[in-house]
Amino acid sequence: xxxxxxxxxxxxxxxxxxGRDLFKPGRPLVYxxxxxxxxxxxxxxxxxxxxxxxxxxxxxIRDLLKTGDFAGVIDATHPYATEVKLxxxxxxxxxxxxxxxxxxPQTDVPPCCDVTVVKSLGEAARHIERTxxxxxxx
Length: 138
Prior knowledge:
Elements: E1 9-13, H1 17-22, E2 29-33, H2 36-43, E3 51-53, H3 58-66, E4 70-75, H4 82-95, E5 99-101, H5 121-129
Parallel strand pairs: 1-2, 1-4, 2-3, 4-5
Helix pairs in contact: 3-4
């Protein structure tokens, strides 16, 4: 009788170091990465099964959750991936699927580094106009 009971999995929306850290052998997870590269990195942790790749819009996430194979979703996507975060949240709400988010701790810029922190793109543009050399804007 127990053999016919299907174990539910957790959908892990990844593409980040935190997501790959959670995707360990023996855990009932299905890993989803937006890119083939992200899927390859997940595969490198020792699991070659249960990896999905490709961008998912809200309809695709909702359809996946409607299969009933998932007990919940872990959102370990990039902190600035606002569109997919919204799509995940709406799909979970519409299907009644529990959602858990991985939050990165805020880090301060070490005083030893030559880093300028600005509050907006406009402020960054004004700063760049007064700066010589290369700039990494992130």
